Every structure is written in structure tokens, then in C-alpha cells.
Amino acid sequence: MDPLDSPNSRPARLAAHSSPQGIAADLVAVLVAVTSGEPRVLTIQDQRALPSGPFELAHRSLQSGLRAWVERQTRLPLGYVEQLYTFADRDRAGTTGQHVISISYLGLTREQPAFGEHEARWRGWYDYFPWEDHRDGPPLLMEKALQPGLKAWASAASDRAAQRARRQRAAMLFGFEEHSWNEELVLQRYELLYEAKLIPEATRGNSSTSTSTRAALSNTPGHPMILDHRRILATGIARLRAKIKYHPVVFELMPDTFTLLQLQRCVEALAGRQVHKPNFRRLIEQQELVEETGETSQDTGGRPAKLFRFRRAVLAERAIAGTKLPVSGA
Amino acid sequence: MDPLDSPNSRPARLAAHSSPQGIAADLVAVLVAVTSGEPRVLTIQDQRALPSGPFELAHRSLQSGLRAWVERQTRLPLGYVEQLYTFADRDRAGTTGQHVISISYLGLTREQPAFGEHEARWRGWYDYFPWEDHRDGPPLLMEKALQPGLKAWASAASDRAAQRARRQRAAMLFGFEEHSWNEELVLQRYELLYEAKLIPEATRGNSSTSTSTRAALSNTPGHPMILDHRRILATGIARLRAKIKYHPVVFELMPDTFTLLQLQRCVEALAGRQVHKPNFRRLIEQQELVEETGETSQDTGGRPAKLFRFRRAVLAERAIAGTKLPVSGA
DNA sequence: TAATATATGCTCAACGAGAGTATATATCAT
DNA sequence: ATGATATATACTCTCGTTGAGCATATATTA
Q1: Quick one: pLDDT at residue A12?
Q2: Is B229 domain-assigned?
Q3: Which of A20, A286, B110, B152 is 20 to 30 A from A110 in CA distance terms?
Q4: How many Cβ atoms are within 10 Å of B272's Cβ, its own excluded?
Q5: In what order do the strands lie in the sheet with A305-310?
């Protein structure tokens, strides 16, 4: 089943029946850049929200509308844009009950001095999902904070079978007990934590939260966001982690020329895990994704590294499906 | 770039600026079943439209709303549901200029006697995309109808470089000249044909269509649909063809028990190409996706085949990412 | 009874992915 | 100057997967 519709991911509620004319739509953007080896997202509202704005039908397509809107608001040139998901089941906390359809997009760019009326700022995406960064092995907070909370959640199930199912699901998603870590399951992990009420967003606006839940929450790492913006961010990260494996979109995040190690660090930053250096280079070069510029970079510390540039021609040569980047264990 | 935003996929037009309150949303469903080895979609309006209806916010989530709506309208139990794409750039032919956001979904089910007020009928999806069926090799109509049209389109480009780019793109997508056929590029192929005005939908409502274009159109195979429904169907087929390779959704289309050849025929129907029988069986069995029922089926003609059933447990055991189905050359 | 169609199982070669090792060339601390 | 260290670059090996062909078993049908 589609993780975005996992049955218990949010409390059931009956919304008012709206006539089609009463619906509002807005765009939400997950804008990603990778700066000095860290994946970052553009945020507004004291870093608690993703950039968003009302949907206007003044463009040829949704996508070109988003592109124009982002470039007007932030002056960022978007290298790659892709629709993520359309949400319509938001909890509009505090609002008048007006329901909003949110159409979310992923956009790749290069970090620039933030610009915009809404105090736009770049922030590392692992600030929101610290458990997703496995570049130096599983982060300590997984044992310290997540595993106890998930264990408690599993034990709280009604019967033995349900407890076992919960434990198995947690182990599968977080790589406990023999299970290997799968970096693509960002959204499923977030939704499990949400379901287990280990995420502040899950109990927001719910006054009947128990004391024990509050205690667990206070230990939960990761910066919260408004509404379901963190879920949208999780969707974007998951999509990007899957995409870089078979589609050369990483280059939209790189400067014009770069060393192979810089490229590798960028992939590692996105995937949240290390990759095997020799294999990475082999795959990049044998696919002819890059070409040498003839120059070298010396500010890398050791031996000067050759500078490369992306061969944009491959986008025309090959079907937009046949390229691979290795994301495997170190 | 996302194929759904390819720059020339439809004529640019400036739509009226709508206030957020004036937006209507509806759901469009691509409902798929596979009956006796043929992939089929549910259609309405004399088989020229996909089932669709107004979006109502009376449900917990968009997805559960769609599920309820489909099951109410058609009495089909949906085994698997996934959001496809949200379109907002439709040409609302003949309507009052009211703009509609269409949220499209893919749903898998088993074919049942059609039910519903809108003369709902099942129809083979290759009636709409005859060039997508390569189970017996490339269909003749590719040489006969598509290749000449695409050749003309390529030659009509402004300069030599553009002509070459067009030829290359057509060859890449349709498998001409050394290029191999990639069954996943359904949407890209449709959009290329649209761009080349080889699809009736592309010139609809445009009175200035040239005579030569009309001639080409009359030769274009494939049943048209209203609005951009054929594009949505292409999106669904592409998504499903990609999905079956790493996610065990085929079983949602199968009866409770089935033979391995039936399963293979189902995969072949969806992928539009044949698969190697011994390899198919090997992969299915070594992944423990199925278990024997102990019974055999004799109505297959030759030696009785063992009957299998899907092991639903794998959905809980494995991360929703680690299963493979072979879709390769025969 | 032979022909035929399907079911089922086995083998082999080619390729790619993962992992380890070795060498070259720079910077930096002493 | 020199050794330590960090990076860059190249090569090798093994294993599992994948594509492809062949062989055998068991039914129906002419």
C-alpha cells in the first residue's frame, strides 16, 4: 500500500463536506541544495515551514507556474522540478475550517544567499530528520531515543500478534535485528514515528495527550514544522534518494566544475550513507556522465584532483531512464 | 526534466487568473484489471473517458476518498491504490473557462461485470496505445504509421541540429536504429506523438489545422479520449510498468489461486513484452512470493500446472522495496 | 500411439556490484 | 629536508544476478 495512505498515519476525522467551489489550492516547495557536503532545504517562518503560496492558474502548466513563482520569490534558478504529491487531508490547526489542497514539488538548485520577504533561510535537512544521517554509521540517537520509544509503542499493542507485527515493522524500517538500513524509506519511517506519537506534530492540538507520551516526545530528536510540512519534506527526501540512483539529477546540485570526490560527497549527503570510492568513480566514468575540463583543483588538501563537468548531452543521448549511481555500503 | 512538463507538450495559453476560492477539484481514476491475458481499463462515456468525479473533502484522506468513491460507483474492491499526478493545465474544451484541478489515481482490481450509471465498460488499454504492445515483437503499425509521421515531424524542424535532435529523441523513445525498446517510457512516447501532432487530442479545438496534419492524423492508430484522459492513462500505464519490477502489486490483479504461467502472462500483458519463462519462475520462487496450494489446474491444455497463492506475509516481512520481477527480453 | 502443448528443472556464460589493495602526488608539521 | 598524512587514481578479485539455452515430465488430442 502506498505509504501516504497507511491506515493509522493520522487520526480519523470527518471534515465538513465542501462544495467544489469552496476549495483552495496552494503550492508547497521542497527546495534542495547541497552546500559543503550538507543537504539543505529552504525554509521560512523561523525555519518551521516550507515555502508555499497560493496556486494561480496563470501559467501554462502547474510546473511552470511553480517554477515562475519560486524564481520570483527567491531568485533561485531551478535546475530540476518534479511534482511530489498532492495532500488534501491536512489538519488546518487553528484555521476556520477552510480546506486546502496542497500540491507539493521538489526543486533542485544551488544554494544562494537567501532572498525573499518571508525570512527565507537554508537549513540542513538532517536537523529535521537526524535519524536519516547514516554517513558515519547509525546515529547514536537511534538507540538512545528512537528504539525505546518504538519498543514502548510495540508493547502497547492489543494482542501478541499485533505486538509482533509492530516490532517487525519497526525493525524493518529502522534496520534493527538483522535488517539492513534502507535509505529510501524516509517517509515510511516518519509515518511510523508519527503513528507511534513520537513526533510532536502527531499530538498537536490534542489536549488529551498523556503524560507518558509527553515524556517520550521531549526526547524525540528532530526539529518540528508546521502542519504536515515535515511529512512533505520526508516525501521529497525519499523521492530524491530514489531518483539519484537511476537518473543524473545530482548534477543540478553541483557547481559547473567539480572533483569526483565532491560529487561523491554530494551523493553521500543526499543518500545519508557512504559509498565505496573506487566503485563510485568507476560507475561515473564508464557511463560517461562527466568529462574532464583539463584543470585541476588544489584546495582539496592532498594531490590535486581533476576537475570535471557534467556532460549535458547524455540527457539527449540516453533515454531518461538508463543511468545508475551507486549508493551502497562503504 | 519531468516528462509531464516537457516544454512543447501543449500549446501555451494564458488562463484567467482565478482566485483561490474559485478552484474546483476532481478525481480521475485509472482502474486496471487483467482479464484472460489482456490489460484493461474501466471507461465511461462511450469508452472515451476515464471515470471521474468531484472531489469531496468528506474523507480522512484523498486516497480513502477515492477508494470509497470508486467502490460506491463501481462496486469494485480496490486492491491497491496509488496517486498518479495532479494536472491543472487542462484544456477545458467548450466549458465556461472554469478551471479544474484533476488529481489522478491508479487502482488495481479484478474485472467484474461493469456496474454504474455512466455506462462503465472495460476496454483493453492497447486499444488506446496500440504501439505499446510488443509481446509479439514491435507491432507493424510502428513502421506503417508512426515512423513516417515522426520522420516528417523531424524534418520539419528549423535547422539541421534541431532535426537531428528530434530524430534522436524519436529513435530513443520508440527503439529505432540500434536503440532498444524501453517499455517504461509510455508517457514520453505519448507526449512526443502529441508534440508531433500525430494524436487527435493535440489539434482538437484548433481550426487552423493544416491539411497535411489531418492526413497524418487519419493514419494515427489508437482510440482517442476526452480532454487529457489519454495522457492520464499513459501516466498510469508507465507507473504500473515501473512498479511491477520491484513491488509485488501484480498479485492484486490475479485471482486467489493461479498457475505460474498465468502470472507470467499477466506480467507480460502489463509490460507489453514477453519474458523468459525459466527465469521468471526462478525469480518468483526464490523470492518466496508464492506458496503452493497443493492443487493443480488441468484446464491449461498440457501437463497440469500447480496452483499457487500469493504469500501476503511478504508485505509485512520485507520492506516495501525489496522485490523484483523480471521484465526482460524473451 | 504419435504428436503436441504445457509444466518443471538444470546448466552455463557474461556481466555488474561489492570490496580490497596498491600507487601517485600534493600539503603540513617537525 | 623529511616523514606523516590526506587525497587522487588505478587495478584486481570474487560473488551473485541475469539472460539464455537445453532437458525432462506429464497431460491432452488427433
Answers
A1: 26
A2: no
A3: A286
A4: 22
A5: A257-258, A305-310, A290-297
Residue located via cell numbers 474546483 = B24
Q: In the listed set A78, A107, A125, which residue is the last one of a domain according to the structure?
A: A125
Pull the grid cell for residue B187: 508517457
**Is B29 found in the same domain as B107?**
yes
Length of chain A: 330
Q: For residues B261 and B268, give the distance between their C-alpha atoms in angstroms, rounded to a whole number.
A: 10
Query: Cβ neighbours of residue B195 under 8 Å, at least 6 residues apart?
Result: B6, B8, B9, B153, B202
Chain centre to alpha carbon of residue A204: 22
Distance from CA of B28 to the nearest CA of A (A): 13
Report yes or no on A175 lying in a domain.
yes
Amino acid in the structure at residue B12: A
Residue A270 lies in a domain: yes
CATH assignment at residue A35: 3.90.79.10
Confirm whether B105 is domain-assigned: yes
Cα B104 from Cα B66, distance rounded (Å): 10
Domains of chain A: total: 3
Q: Nearest residue on chain B to A89, judged by CA atoms?
A: B61
Rounded CA gap, B22 and B99, in Å?
A: 8
Q: Do A26 and B10 touch (CB under 8 A)?
A: no
Using a 7 Å cut-off to protein CB atoms, list the covered nucleotides of chain D: 5-12, 18-22, 25-28
Cα–Cα separations (whole angstroms), residue A62 to A88, A278, B13: 17, 41, 12
**Closest residue, chain B, to A54 (C-alpha):** B20
**Last residue of a domain, which of B203, B219, B235?**
B219
Do A66 and A137 fall into the same domain?
no
Amino acid A3: pLDDT: 56
Does strand C come within 7 Å of the CB of A329? yes
Q: Is the CB of B276 under 7 A from strand C?
A: no
Q: Which pLDDT tens digit goes with each residue over B236-274?
A: 999 999 999 888 999 999 999 999 999 999 999 999 999
Size of interface A-B (CB pairs under 8 A): 163
Per DSSP, the three-state class of B258 is strand
Instruction: Judge whether residue B97 has pLDDT over 60.
Output: no
Task: Give me the CATH number covering residue A309.
Answer: 1.10.10.10
| Residue A256: Cβ-neighbour burial (10 angstroms; 0-12, 13-18, 19+) | exposed
Q: Name the one residue in this structure whose C-alpha cell is 518504538.
A: A150
- Dmax over CA atoms of chain B, in Å, equals 66
Question: What is the tens place of the pLDDT at every residue in A10-38?
Answer: 322 223 333 444 678 889 999 999 998 89
Helix H or strand E segment including B156: none
pLDDT computed for residue A301 by the predictor: 72
The grid coordinates of residue B296 equal 493443480
Whether the pLDDT of residue B17 is over 70: the answer is no
A67: nearest CA partner in chain B: B5
Question: Containing domain of residue B30, as a range?
Answer: 3-125
Q: What span, in angstroms and rounded, lies between the C-alpha atoms of B37 and B35?
A: 5
**pLDDT tens by residue, B169-219:** 999 999 998 888 999 999 999 999 999 999 988 877 655 555 555 555 556
Q: Is the pLDDT of residue A324 over 70?
A: no
